[in-house]
Automatic annotation (TrEMBL):
Protein name: Uncharacterized protein
Organism annotation: Phrynocephalus forsythii
Amino acid sequence: MPLHAEFDLEQAVLEWRGWCGTLWGRFMELALQGSLALPLETLAIHQGINELTRMIGKSLILQMTSDLCSLKEQLLSLLLWWSAMLPCWTWRANCDPRLIDRAHRGVNRQ
């Protein structure tokens, strides 16, 4: 499917699979095990916020890039989307907004 293709929303089947607090490694396990109701045509991913307090930004970016390339190789027709939803400003691991903002800026620079 070309990137510029428009979706026929009347024909689309949408399903939300959300697991609160899921870390990247667990998401990839679920995706590779077929728990995301594969095969899919499109997969929108909103992931990584919980990782900012656990992984260095560059490490996280490299790991996600590698994993998504692997997923794409296994599912050639899959169109991957990355969501740009508003980020969380508090986490159980760290509630200081200044530190969270610094983590966001660090990842965005990389």
